[in-house]
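Can't paste images in this forum, so I'm doing it all in text. The chain is below; anyone willing to post the predicted C-alpha cells underneath?
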Amino acid sequence: MDNCFKLISSGSGREVIVRVLAKADYKVLVLKQGNYYARSKLSLLEDPTMDRMYLGSELMATDDMGVVIVAGATVGSGSAINWSASIRTPKHVLKE
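Text version of the structure:
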C-alpha cells in the first residue's frame, strides 16, 4: 500500500488535505464517525439534535465538571455543529 493515506475523522480542512494528496498521486481513504443527515431530516430542536448529531448524544465533561466538551459526531463534524458561530449575524437579529 505505497502512496496511501488514511484520514481518521477529519475537520474542516479535510477537503484541502484530500485534494493536495490526490494531486500528488496518493490514494486517500477518509473514515468518519457518525451518520449523514439530509437537510430535510434535520430538526431545529435541541433534544433530537443532541441525540443524533453529538458525540455521546450529549455534553461530556471531566469528573469535576471543570471542562465541558461538545463534539459533533456526524458527517461534517464540528463544521455541521458549529457553523452558526462563523457566519455574520443578520442585521434584523442584532436589532432585536
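DSSP finds four helices and four strands in the chain. Residues 20 and 67 are 35 Å apart (CA to CA).
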